[in-house]
Amino acid sequence: MTKSFEEFEVHKKGVVLTKQVFRILNQSSIEKEFGFKDQMKRAVISITNNIAEGSEYNNNKQFVRFLKIAKGSCAEVRNMLILARELEFCTQAEIQESLQLSVEISQNISNFIKYLDSKTENKKLEGLKR
């Protein structure tokens, strides 16, 4: 990979989501729910951490593995936002933008995985031609 993780649009969106989630956690009654708050923080931070870590391997197969973990963390954040709403820690209006962004990030990660998988397949095919 020639790009650094900071240049990936999906990483930039993950940073935005992290800031949004931290804002939600600081403004709502979740603040008193330390375990819930801590888990949500770890999950949202995990998205960008796994994108960053995976990109440093310079190996598409390894990068895809870490992107799948990031995608799972994205789903965890989305679930926790839904739970926060259902437990009345916050309103739908307070989390709507973050929910939408988490879906977008998840889709972006899926597309990135497909792209990297296609590059890996092309390399395998090139190896067979020789």
Automatic annotation (TrEMBL):
Protein name: 30S ribosomal protein S23
Species: Flavobacterium suncheonense GH29-5 = DSM 17707
Domain of life according to the entry: Bacteria
CC per GO annotation: ribosome
Keyword NADP attributed: no
Keyword Glycosyltransferase appears in the UniProt entry: no
Keyword list, A-Z: Ribonucleoprotein, Ribosomal protein
Pfam families reported in the protein's UniProt record: 23S_rRNA_IVP
